[in-house]
Every structure is written in structure tokens, then in C-alpha cells.
Amino acid sequence: MSTILDAKIPSGAIGEKWTKFKSSVPLVNPANKRNIEVIVVGTGLAGASAAASLAELGYKVKAFCFQDSPRRAHSIAAQGGINAAKNYQNDGDSTYRLFYDTIKGGDYRAREANVHRLAEVSGSIIDQCVAQGVPFAREYGGLLSNRSFGGTQVQRTFYAAGQTGQQLLLGAYSALQRQVGLGNVTMMTRHEMMDVVMIDGKARGIIARDLISGKLERHFGHAVLLCTGGYGNVFYLSTNAMGSNVTAAWKAHRKGAFFANPCYTQIHPTCIPVSGDHQSKLTLMSESLRNDGRIWVPKKQNDNRPAVQIPEDERDYYLERRYPAFGNLVPRDIASRAAKERCDAGYGVGTSKMAVYLDYAEAILRYGKGEANKKGIQNASDEELQAMGKAVVKEKYGNLFDMYKQITGEDPYSVPMRIYPAVHYTMGGLWVDYNLMTTVPGLYALGEANFSDHGANRLGASALMQGLADGYFVLPYTIGAYLAGDIRTKAIPTDAPEFVEAEKAVQARIDQLMNIKGTKSVDYFHKKLGKIMWNECGMSRSEAGLKGAITEIQGLIKEFWSDVRIPGDADEFNPELEKAGRVADFLELGELMCIDALNRNESCGGHFREEFQTEDGEALRDDENYAYVAAWEFKEQSKFELHKEELVYENIKIAQRSYK
Amino acid sequence: MNLSLKVWRQKNANSEGKFQQYDVQGISEDMSFLEMFDVLNERLINEGESPVAFDHDCREGICGMCSMYINGEPHGPNKGVTTCQLHMRSFKSGDTITVEPWRAKAFPIVKDLAVNRSAFDRIIAAGGYVSVNTGNAQDANSLPIPKDNADDAFMAAACIGCGACVAACKNASAMLFTSAKISQLALLPQGQAERTMRAEKMVAQMDVEGFGACTNTGACEAECPKGISLENIARMNREYYGAVLSSK
Ligand SMILES: Cc1cc2nc3c(=O)[nH]c(=O)nc-3n(C[C@H](O)[C@H](O)[C@H](O)COP(=O)(O)OP(=O)(O)OC[C@H]3O[C@@H](n4cnc5c(N)ncnc54)[C@H](O)[C@@H]3O)c2cc1C
Ligand code: SF4
Ligand code: FES
User: Fold this and answer.
1) Is the pLDDT of residue B140 over 80?
2) How many domains does chain B fold into?
3) Which of A381, A603, B120, B233 supports an S-S bond with A619, CB 3.0-4.6 Å?
């Protein structure tokens, strides 16, 4: 068992592993690189940075995305920021502290060696991005500005207003387009990867569908990189982009790549609440808002007064009350559960009562006073203070406030925002070793698609860091270990029987889907799956609930394959057919998530099992029995075998996570 | 609310298109414009008809994928929002709403309301970058940048590449889009080395793609959902003429 799951962690002290690895990893000489082809599926932060960096090194790269441009990957939507242990604020940050915070934040369920490497390269990411022209926020002295983010006590988050993901992705995209222009990357937009092609036990290419013509294509690569993002949309409603999906990862899983910790999902505490059945997605209000905003509910149950009429002493700032050391900045899993607890107990606000307040009144006043001081204005009136304070808040969070107003029709500068947790990120993903290779030789997973660095809970501003670390600074080195042994492999012609067979299988599945001609739309099934997942495999889970969910999902899979209706034809631009293929894979993944959640008889990070909690409702971990990565092998439909990667903590003492 | 929609239907790039009328009922004010289309499409699917194809992904105004021309305006009547951020409270029951795709020679129609905007990617590939390989960078704080410059560069960098500027322009010019990238990099010290070359190459590519000339109508700025300013075009012209003069 453990022979398969060799994480290939280099020996040596934690701080020396990566340096040692880099200086001893086999290299591919430039002449050979020109003959090696690498397929990169996905052009978000992970994919765009990897494709650009590999092309700069001299590899021949083919990149794929399903949007009409690589610049539109879901990464574009990230708002709040990106972490790096630069210690520019001189507040005691260091590689070790970022490493420690990430392991602790992940509730001691991440692999030490990977996380330390992530912290080590974090600074170079900022350097690289600034060199590309990414316009990070700056102070008047011209130096970079930082903010703090949930789960940490230092200011290490770099940001570009509320559009950090956009600016980072446009940076990576420009590097990618530069290589496209130079002829080193062939970019295939509006293409969806439908399967991995395996030859002699190695990943050697993919079958892709041209989404405009519907034609299937075969593409060879010496190695295949999946940078295809997370699977939060298994819940139907999430903050992910509409197209985010698990298909590429799931196809890889079915071809032998183990899927790790599928049940670890992150429910983000600050999102705009659901407003009705028509809702197609949820919108995140960046976590950075918790820096200045205070979260509260009325002390009285079912209090229907407008927020401003509820006096100070009748408000329950429950995070500050329960977690005085971190207050509103506790990690996401804790903040989300605390909101659910208050709402379930009848203290929720708004018409649905499934919301809490995020209040800026105090911050506005505080900033107003700060401005008055700076400008030397004495006895400023309340109105003047308000105006000055609002201006500061606008500068910091303006676009988020605007977004809130567009969606809800309410003005957050004058009334507190209503927020509620929503599915946001998936820590689980394809199992990878230290080299980011899956259990399939030659098949790699980067970014949110892998399981690697965040354990059972991700800290804010760490996904962007991980995606870019993987793509710019990790994979371009680690892939050498594999490709150096592959320099004699000539490009395999795509009329090889394995390609032909793989394409046939994909075609057969498309035909099967088109021929069902049932009575229900794809969305009908997606919404149904989403409800099951949210209720039973969401913020809290129980044995009975999970067992019921598994049976329900199995029923839904049968119903889907006998009653889904896909209009139009397969040989045209057909968004319903695209969705159908993705939902079919989500259904199978949903089942595995429940199986994984059922297996994990403990609570840790984003995984909260009702049976395992302390007296005051905190998560109860079981390090004795569950300090492992659960990596699932696909056997056949609904049958998965569990493999374990034991987590060994040599540098950080495993402890009860406390933010009190 | 109940609405009447006139929607452009076109099977693919090579076929002819036409407007088709659909009546939709029971639309809530809290729905986004795209959610209203979801309702219509769900109905069309149930009736065995082909749903309306349109591009979208983030549904929060940042990916630049959505692209509907609504009642003669790209992204509809409201300022500073994309189609996906437009909510039905901006319309009244009984309204007739006409919806078309972006129309420009450089943006061929894929199907119904979806178009191909790869021309923008090629403009960026021609020079919209700083040539810095991974690992070549110096420490980020070794290069202080005055906050005002950084802020201006950020404003220009806010472009989402949606193409509304092209759709709004009677000449289908891509000046606003191209100038936003040129400005961003011209405002930053990192962009200086390739400054002249960048402007020349990107402008040349814009012409190759078949975008029209700019006649300063300002329609692009008025319709841009991200407030990209005409000043960028002025700055680009300075960059470009500077480039042309210096290379002569
Ligand atoms: C609203 C929001 C805000 C966030 N804010 C932050 C933040 O402030 N800080 C932070 O650190 N993290 C944040 N995150 C998380 C972070 O944005 C993501 O985890 C990260 O961007 C994922 O990047 P990626 O490169 O792994 O994947 P993605 O950006 O999701 O890219 C996936 C790519 O794969 C392609 N693809 C997928 N499937 C296929 C297929 N079958 N065939 C072909 N192509 C395919 C897509 O076209 C796309 O190019 C946020 C997330 C959300 C939802
Ligand atoms: S300049 Fe404005 S309208 Fe044009 S592509 Fe950019 S964001 Fe869209
Ligand atoms: S769908 Fe992304 S901007 Fe509208």
C-alpha cells in the first residue's frame, strides 16, 4: 500500500530539502527540451504560469482552456490577495511562520515538506509578478502595501484593490501570450479535455473536444499537466465560476490517479446570502472585509428591528466573544460554523434569517478620525468624519461595496451587509507526490486541482500563492526528474491504437448522453445533487446523513442516465452537452465525497462531523487514527479503495488548534 | 414581471441569423439578466427547443466572458456593469428587450449571442507584456513606484477584455482595449525597456485583425463596464507616434 503512495519527499532537514532537491534533480539539456512536448490543461494561475515557464525553458507546450480566452479562467475572480513571507512590514514574519500558520490553519492535515517549500518560494512570486507589471497596491513611499487576512497575526498579504486574482492572472496570461507570440506555446481555447490517453502505463496525451465544431481531437504529450481548478460546483451553488468543474480530474481518477481527501471543502464565511430559487451562483465578499468589519447578530432571537435600531448592548459580536485572541479574523472554517450555529439557533437576520451582519459603521468612524488627525482638522463634525471615513473605506474596498449594492440593492456604506457562508474552495483533489505527480506516471496536477498544501482548511490568500508557486517555481523543476528519463521517447503518432481507443470511448459516451432524450434538463440534476451535498456533506455532516446521501446520489445517477434531456446535436456549439458531461462526473464525485466524509470519524478543518465535537462545539480531531491523507483509488462505478499516506510531523508539534 | 424578448438566433458562423421573439413570465427583480436567460432556456429545453447560446462564466463582472448587446447598448442600460451584473430591477414589467451579439468583423459569431474574441489575445501576444522570464526578477521592493503611477496603472489594468468598446464603436475600433494595456505598462518602470516596440506591434496587430480606425466618438468609454478612460487612447497615441518617429 505505502509503496504506491511514496510521496518522494527528499531527505534532510525541512529547510534544506528543496534547495538540495533543486541542485540534484536531473536536468534536460536545451536541445532535448525542444523535442519534448508538454500538455497543459487549464490556464488559470497554475496553468498559465506553468505553460509560460515551461515554454521559456524551451519545452514545446500545448495549452488548453474551455473559455474563449486563457485570461478568463476562474482565477480571475479572486479578490482579496496573495500571501508571501516577505516580512516587509517587519512584524515578525518569516518562512517558518508562514509554514507554521499554513500547517496549523490546515488543522494538521497537510504534508510538511510541501508546505515548507511553498513558504520558501512565496517571496519570489511577488518579485516575479511585480516584474511583469502587476499593479499591486502601494504606499505613498512607493513600496508595496500589505494587509492581514483571516487566520494570521502578521500582515503578509499583497493585493490589488479587490482584484488581486485578476491582476495576477493577467500577469501570468501576458507571460503566456508572449510565448504564444514567440511560437513556443500552441494555445487551444474553447477546447475541453475529455480524457487522458494512457500508453504503457504512462500519461501520453489527451482527447479534447473542440467546443465550437464538436469535433474530437487527439493530442500527444510526453507529460500532461492538469491545472483545471477546484470542484466546488458539485454543490451547484458556490462562489466558483459557472464553468468550473471536476471533469479533467475525474477522468484522470478513472484512469488510475488517486483522489485525495475529497470531503475537505471550504465554506467561506462572507458571501452574499441566497435570495431565491432562481439563484445560479453565489457571490463572495472578500475575507479582507473581516479586517475592518465587525460581525454580529442581535442578542434576542427573531429580532426584526432594522440593524441600525439595535443598540450596541443588544448586539452579540459572537466571534469576538468566543475567540478573543483572533476575534473577527479566525480562520474560515471556524467563522463559518459560528455563523451557522447562530442562525440555526434563531439569531439570524434578514428575510431568510439565514444571515449575519458584517458592519462597517465603527471602521468608518475610526478611519474618519484618522484622516482628521492626518489633516490636522480639529472638532470635525460627525458628518465630516463619516465622509472622510467612507472615502478611506471606498479606497480600500470600493469595488466590493459596489458589488454588494448591485446584487442586493442596499447601500453597505449606511447599513451593515448581510452575509452567510457559501461553498468556495476545495482542499481535496488529485493526490500528488512532492514532484506534483499523481499516481499515474507523467500525469501532474497543479493549483486547486491537487490536494497538496492546505490540509483540511485553507488560509485566505494562500490559493493564489499555491497556484503560482506550483506553476512558476515548483513544477518547472520537478518535471525534470521525469522528463530527463524520457528524452529518447519520440513523439507518439496520434493514430496509435491507444489514441484511437480513447477517442472511441469518448465518442461512445457522448452518443450515449445524446441518445437518452429524456425529460429533465441537466440543471435539474445538478440542483438536486447540490441540495443533497449542501445538506449532508456541507458545513456539518453525520453518519446517518452521509449514508442517506450516498443512496440518494446512486439513485440520482441512475435517473440521470435514463432521463436527462440534451437539446441540439453533438457536432455543434452545445453548452448543454458540455454541462451534461460535467454533471455526470460531479454525480460520481459527490458519492466519493460522502464516502470519504463517512470514513473520516473525526472533525478537522472544513470537515465537521456532528458526532465528533467538544463540549463547546469545537471540532474534535483524532490524531491517533486519522492523521493521514485519504487517497482513493477508483475500482469501478461506486467502488473505491482507500490508501493512506501517513502524515509525519517532524518540525511542528501537533496541537489542538486554538484561536481563543 | 413579464417581458418580451427579441433575441438574435444564428446557428453558426456560416448561417444567416434572425430575431426571434420570446415572452417570459414570472421574472423576479432580484434575478440577474443572465438568470432571466436561464429561465428562458430551461423552458426552451423542456419544450424540446434549442436554448439560446450565450457566453458567461464568473457571473460577477470580472472574467469578461458575457457579451450581450441589450437594447442597443453593450451590457445594457446601466453604467459600469457587465451583463451578468445587470439585475432585472433595471427593467419594468411589459418591457420589450432586444438582445444581440457583439457585432464586429474581428469578432465572428460562434452561435446566437456568443462571439469569438481571440483577436484580443493576439493583440496581447504581439506585445502586451514585459519580457521577463520566470526567475529573472529582482526583489519587489527594490523598485519603488510612486503611488499615483501605480494607481493609474491599476486603473488601466482593470480592463476585462470583454469587447464592449468594440461593440459600442461605429468603426468597431479596438483602441480602448489596446490603449489600456499600453498605458498600464507605459506608466510603470518595468514597461520602459520595450515601450516603443510594444506600441508599434500592438497597433499593427490591431490593424491586421480588422478592427476599425478611431474617430474619437467616445462611445467606447461611455459603454466600458470598467471605466477605462479615453485618456488611455491619448497616451497610446503619444506612445505610438513617439515610437513611429523614433524608429524612422
Ligand atoms: C470568488 C473567489 C475569490 C477568491 N479569492 C481568493 C483570494 O483572494 N486569495 C486566494 O489565495 N484565493 C482566492 N480564491 C481561490 C483561488 O482563486 C483559486 O483557488 C485559484 O485561482 C485556482 O486557480 P487554478 O489555476 O488552480 O484553477 P482555475 O483558475 O480554476 O483554472 C482552471 C482552468 O482549467 C480549465 N479547465 C478546467 N477543466 C477543463 C477541461 N476539462 N478541459 C480544458 N480546460 C479545462 C479552465 O478553462 C481554466 O483555464 C478565490 C476563489 C473564488 C471563487
Ligand atoms: S476597455 Fe472596457 S469595454 Fe473594452 S474590453 Fe476593456 S473592459 Fe471591455
Ligand atoms: S460572466 Fe464574467 S463578466 Fe459577466
Assistant:
1) yes
2) 2
3) A603
